[in-house]
Write a structure and sequence with these properties.
The chain has one domain: Jelly Rolls (Sandwich). The chain contains 6 helices and 10 strands. With 239 residues, it is an alpha+beta fold. The structure holds 2-oxoglutaric acid. 2-oxoglutaric acid binds next to strand 2, strand 8 and strand 9.
Length: 239
Amino acid sequence: MRNAALLDTLEALIGPEIQASPIYHFNLKLAARHLALAESIAKTAGRRNPSIAATHYGFEVGQTPWHMDAIAGLRDSHQSKIVIAWIPLTPADPERGALRLVPRSHRLGVRSGPFPDDLIEQAKTIEAMPGDVVFMHNTLLHSASENRTAEEVRWACNFRYLPVGEANGRPYLPGFVARSRSAPETELTNPQVWLGMWTCALENLMQGELPVPNVATTTRARAAAITRRWSEAVPDERA
Ligand SMILES: O=C(O)CCC(=O)C(=O)O
């Protein structure tokens, strides 16, 4: 997440003060054999089929439905200059699970599906290899195809970056300063500290004193108030 070449490119896109968002994912696409196993376990456990259900679970291991990443964050983050860095760790092509993007769809603003067919028809398939990075606007419409291999697991990271000080959409989890030209001492370089920040944040949430706000129902004004309250309560996340 602090790779210098990655941050150099991000700097050109969003400026020299770069926050790594606490919203990030590792996307694995399970192969047919793994999905068959997962499906049989799901059946036994009375859960939905993980390979096709357009749920959080399906999103992560099977075909990823059309979406904009912005919807994962509270509404006060929808105006933030958020860039997604999607990084394949294994080959990501139509056989193994490829990213599909609708060029210029970020101009539509934040929307949730279903999306019209004529929009989806404009999608481009990206063939990406380890070493590549795909940079996306936070409101770019995208999806990913399923993994059609018998055995290979396809892995990709979805990291998000935005200017320091802008709302990241999950104020109750720890982001960190990945690069700061004006105050380099604020950069977080110690992964153990970051682990400590996550541990504290999760323990705090588990105490349940403050409910986790719902991204779909929390208004922008309320989200901004929640974000402000958290940044006053935790002025320096590293501490
Ligand atoms: O890597 C994938 O399979 C899906 C990526 C994606 O759509 C996301 O992380 O938002």
